[in-house]
Fold this protein.
Amino acid sequence: MSRIVGHLDLDYFYAQVEEVEAPSLRGIPVLVCVFSGRTEESGVVSTSNYKAREYGVKSGMPIALAKGRLKGVEAAFIPMHHAKYEAYSDRVMGTLRSRVDLLEQAGIDEAFFDVTKKTGGDYDAAAAFARELKDEIFREEKLSCSIGIGPNKVVAKIASDFKKPNGLTVIRDDQALAFLSPLPVDRIYGVGPKTAKLLEENGITTIPELARSPIERLEDLLGKKLAVYLRNASNAIDDEPVVDRGGTSQLSRMITLKTDTRDLQQVVAELLPALKDVHEKLISKDLFFRSISAIGILKDLSPHTRSKTLETPTNDYSVLEKEVRDLFAALLREVGDLRRAGVRLGELQDMVDQRSLTDFTS
Ligand code: TTP
Ligand code: CA
């Protein structure tokens, strides 16, 4: 039986939650903003609804620039309410988890799922299931989402993005190659702007061009691991399983520093409450973390990250604080003054995984 994998992504998520809570916002551009607190306009747009996107507003854009694009237009600039979005996310993921064979949450508003058993490998049953799921999420939360169904994660992810918002795209295994063939390489998960540019400089812009490229050439350009993954992905081949990581895949917090600085002591001191916050969340969810990142945002809003993967997962606060200090020490040796600083814990695992791990090793 061939696998049936889905990818669900909530539409314009943070902005849509704001619309759900204040329906009078519907129809006007809505921008969810991270205000840095310096001046009324300093900060960036986190996301926006599709009405705002018609005016060229994009995620990550400075608020002042977005205001310029919306000059003379009635629009709502709303500060980000992260805890609220997490609560919506937790409820949607809970619904999803109860309906599928396996769920892998990939971000606050997206998840992969496996419904091979549930559907008996039948794509029509999978399509009907996806429609019911969309209806259920809309009934419960008033949120629209886009779903892609396919033979693997690579195809499902591209399919969920294919018709947005409120889309449903079902690609059977025998349609997958034809579905990918007109698309540019950057639709494949893992091809960021850097890789796309490198491929373009070498005459590779579409997925079939990538699929036809000699593997040795791709390995020279990209290294063996990425080359093999992309060569397979471009041929609609992807054996990555849907892995249940037990709910949240990441925990993170960002703060705006009182003054721009590259002083390690100041950065760590101001970050302490955020670190304690993230740690409390970790403990309350019975989770251990294995990877940890220090994130610094400079005055020009460019993000810089230093990450480390620990040998074994932990939930120890002193390890968290020590690693953050070391990572920021390394980061600050290489960049200028930071405007914002943050921490992200990844590869989260729950107690159950921990127990089975010790069962195996003891
Ligand atoms: P996305 O799924 O990339 O975007 P979206 O949900 O706003 O819009 P759509 O899926 O309809 O294209 O990101 C999910 C959330 O993550 C988004 O609502 C806000 C947040 N986010 C940021 O804070 N900064 C960013 O640069 C991006 C891309 C997203
Ligand atoms: Ca989304």
